[in-house]
Amino acid sequence: MTNTGFERGSNQHIRIHVLPTKRFKTFAISLYVGAPLKEDTVTSTALIPFVLRRGTSSYPETIQFREQLEELYGAGFGFDVYKRGDHQIIQFRMDTINDSFVQSSDKLLDRSFAFLGEVVTSPAKENGHFRSSYVQQERDTVRKRLESIVNDKIRYAGERCIEEMCKGEPYRLHPLGERKDLPGIEPEGLYKSYEQWLQNAGMDLYVVGDTTLEEVEKLVEKYFHLNRNTSFEYKTEVSSRPHREVQTVVEKLNVNQGKLNMGLRTSITYGDDQYASALMYNGILGGYPHSKLFVNVREKHSLAYYASSRYDGHKGIATIQSGIEIPNYEQAVEIIKNQLSDLKEGKISDLEMNQTKAMIRNLLREIGDSAFEMISYDFNRQLSGKERTTMELLTQIESLTIEDVQKAAETFQLDTIYFLRDQKGE
What we know:
This is Pitrilysin family protein. This protein has 426 residues and is an alpha+beta fold.
């Protein structure tokens, strides 16, 4: 169930992490490319993987690109763009069947690296830059994704709460960037941004499967043709700041249901010894169906259609999300604040402790069932500089007391209340 056993190496300033195992029938490959969240680069950087997935120098047409994956016995390829702390992360993923399960004359891991290396380092070009048609089409893709956030009022309220809470901080930025910047991104400029990104970003390559660190290092040397002279380290400013008066932001749009979101800051981050206590705090507050927010705001008082909380351990921020009837705003705020106070006062039942430990225990145990979950968990180590196996975290969780969770609760300070309501009334 634990994710120990990653062997580490480096090549061309790509950090390489390999977990040799015969447990899975596939090879799981993840390449994380991380750069600081910056207003002037966030949109162009977000657009890059969308264009890269359209074609490479050997397979410039998108249909050829997809046919190549079929020739790799239906290998999976995809990417995500997200933020962790103050960084914008692009994760490329491939999963390829192990050669021993198919009749193939070539080594599929070798062919997968050839494909991924070309996707990242040798894109389809025209006149020395990205294909204009691909850039235009993928700008529309990103624009539609950003518009979908505005149309999904739950997501919109969550993003707006962070924007208001983190004004002046990189964390306020959405990892897909801003719609207003998209029309100005042209193929030539985007290609220059891509070259700078390739040169300067942090790169962590993970492989889980029946291979060795030595083999993967040779494949990186063979297929990732990079000219990099930088060594990137992840650094995030902890969210904690001098305590200020809670700010309240009310936004009016054409909605029928109110969205009440709250943002809290804490000094506890992933690398902190109190991280396990912060996980328990979030779980008891609003992480699960037995949590205080769900039971008290939604069930007992029937004030919310949904009520939950999330904790970003890389930034030291927790957020509360709830959907309420607009006239119930003041009562809902009061009851949510009561839950925060109860946690700070240690009003936590043994049942809440036991149920939350059980939920976290199950999540940690499930990590070992998925190669990509194991990779994702280990990447937290790279982001935070903290070595902590799933077993070590589980042991810490199991040993926590109500007093430990109370101490963590005392560090969580309410910072921002954001309310999205209709355009009627005050």
